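Board notes, transcribed. Complex of a protein with 2'-deoxycytidine-5'-monophosphate.
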Amino acid sequence: MAAEQSTVTVIAIDGPSGAGKGTLCRRLASRLGYHYLDSGALYRLLGLAAQRRGIDFANHAALQVLAEHMDIQFKTEHDRVVVLLEGEDVSRELRTEQTGALASLVAVVPAVREALLQRQRDFARPPGLIADGRDMGTVVFSDAPLKIYLTASAQERAARRHKELLEKGENVSLAALVEQVSARDERDMNRDASPLRPAADAVQIDTSDLSIEEVMQSVLSILSLKNMA
Ligand code: DC
């Protein structure tokens, strides 16, 4: 693990959902020509695979074996990432609220996090990797030369989610979303296994009042200050 961590430039980007990590990470990866690890997708894939196999989520040993062996592939087709589970395209199903809920159930299991460690580290290939998640800087790539922690107020993250849902034709009250976002933060930050928190050496960026271009510019300035771009 140490060898892989040190020979490839890894940029670890963590933070709660809705802070803008996904968009930033995809743009950075494309700008720098780096690989991209969407670690949340691994937890989502595992949740989906476990449900399809009828595995009891209390059976941590079975979840661990599945985490180690599930057959997954990420393929880029015409600028779009296609995710395959046992050869089947599950890209769409992966993004649903239901799959997100399954992911959060498996993500609290320490044996699952341990089993996914190596699979995540295997994404680190030359010339570099943008690692997107919750524990990239604290656990998975703890010696990454650049760690960014993106935040935004719960109000702003709920408003972004609200806009996304409206665009999909779903009308959920903003107040309910603010509550959901706050409850999820509480769970993520207070769980025993790899709680969501900034690494001690992470640069924190609050995106509440920033556009994606502005966030991108700040990260690119940090990279240039560190002679990494
Ligand atoms: O970022 P996302 O919504 O796709 O994440 C799905 C779930 O997985 C969410 O409950 C947080 C969890 N997760 C995690 O615990 N550790 C990570 N590195 C990435 C995601």
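The first helix runs from residue 2 to 7. Residues 10-215 form a domain with the Rossmann fold fold (CATH 3.40.50.300).
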